[in-house]
What we know:
CATH topology: Rossmann fold
Number of strands: 8
Helix content: 25-40%
Strand order of the largest sheet: 5-4-3-6-7-8
Structural class: alpha/beta
Shape: globular
Radius of gyration: 16 Å
CATH class: Alpha Beta
Number of domains: 1
Number of helices: 7
Amino acid sequence: MSGELVGALRAVDAVRFGxxxxxxxxxxxxxxxxxRFETDPTSLSLIAKAFAERIDDELLAGVALxxxxxxxxxxxxxxxxxxxxxxxxxxxxxxxxIEGALPxxxxxxxxxxxxxxxxxxxxxxxxxxxxxxxxxxxxxxVDRQEGAKxxxxxxxxxxxxxxxxxxxxxxxxx
Length: 174
């Protein structure tokens, strides 16, 4: 599956080479463009199937905005509801940080697109925990292998990835 997923991500130019500023402020000589694979039906289907193979009985959660397509297709794949974790509360409407039905004492797995430092995934985990959920796993499409695993481990959360940067960049043109 990972070889097929690497091929799908490369086919939609999800990996670009050059000089890029990352969301955490650092720079990189490559960029994983999540919107390329999150808007491609073939990639989405492969990701949903791969996530489904790793999910137990947990409620699904996706981090807004990037992981919403991923958690939605995975929800359909496993026929299970999901919640969306906003980066911050909205100042209008319900003002919820977590959208969707979060049962009391739910066990939740967080789905995410790309992990670099792990900060956005950890923020989602903390918001879910603050709401009473049990969260001990985050599954990402791509782990850039730049500290996310260690950041999450410090909060007793295991990071699993469908692909690592090493696998995605192997034999690449970077």
